[in-house]
Amino acid sequence: MGHQLSALIGKAAVNSVVAKAYDIPVVELPQGFSLIALDVAHSDHWTEEIGIKQDAEEGLLRLDNLTTHFFAGLVFGANRFAVIETDYHGGTGSQTAVVYEDGAVLMPAVSARRGPINQALELLGVAAASGQDGFQTLGLNLFRSYGDVENY
Fold first, then answer.
1. 10 close to 78: Cβ distance less than 8 angstroms
2. d(CA 32, CA 82)
3. Helix H segments across 59-150?
4. Residue 131 Rama label (left phi>0; alpha psi -120 to 50; beta)
5. Residue 28 has pLDDT above 80, yes or no
6. Is 69 helix (H, G, I), strand (E, B) or coil?
7. In angstroms, what is the C-alpha Rg of the chain?
8. What is the H or E stretch that residue 33 is in?
9. Are 29 and 139 in contact (CB under 8 A)?
């Protein structure tokens, strides 16, 4: 089974009114963290609706853009957050993560078969449970796609 998820992760109380207004699927995670699922079509819709002018340049993460940063500020007002992506099919693939703090890059985007998301979670302050990594501790393994978060 594949694992293809794009998301924001931050540690802050979720503004559920704003999340609902922008139709943003949010899941509260352990240790006070929250996950905002990201989707290209959803992002494109709100980019146009709000009138955000995106940078023409695309980096390692498809959804690391001004709309995503706008949502991070609105939904959980986080001044430190990670943008993560997983892309695994049949056991092969990669994961990518970047961490921001107060608008500046704290951890540049890294893409590898294993590790970048856990590095990002550590920078966010996730305390891994005994015998688990941060990804497992937060239960991110339960969310394989945007639909998994949307229907949670």
1. yes
2. 15
3. 66-76, 116-124, 134-137, 146-150
4. left
5. yes
6. helix
7. 14
8. strand 33-38
9. yes
